[in-house]
Amino acid sequence: MIIIDAVAPNAHEMRPIQRGWGLIHWVGCLPLYIPILAAILFGVMVSAVAGDHLPPLLLGGYIIGTVVLWAFANRWAQAVVAAEARTSPVAGLAWRWSIDDQGFAFDNGLQSNRLDWRAIKAIRDESDRFVFLVAPHYNPILPSRLLDAGELAQLQALIEEVKASGRLGRGVD
Fold it and tell me: Whole-angstrom Cα distance, residue 54 to residue 39?
């Protein structure tokens, strides 16, 4: 059994995953980008229809203004969500991970979770972290910096054993 105390990924380690869930990542980004693209397309269409009747800098100003407003709204929304997350009773609590041949468990004193290897679709071993792909919006992160060389080798061997036995992702259709 591998036990890792004080698991608290930093901002870089919590970066969004780019691969692992296929097309869903890009489809999930569409609601973010469609409104800005629609506004720009609308501006271009109005400019094309109006022709010389619009002031020369109106279209460029409209596009730049739309992008700036969109970026400001996104940053503001992220700041509000982050501020609310910090008020949570579990905010800032470090986790204790326990990993064995049955799966892994983690708790922080106020909540706990246990995952069987069959519940994990795949494990991404990246340069600075392990990403456990459980569901598109739930992917626990284990920073590699918290593991010493022996624990890292033990974890990699356990992952290979679970893959070889066919248990990893077995519960995923």
Answer: 17
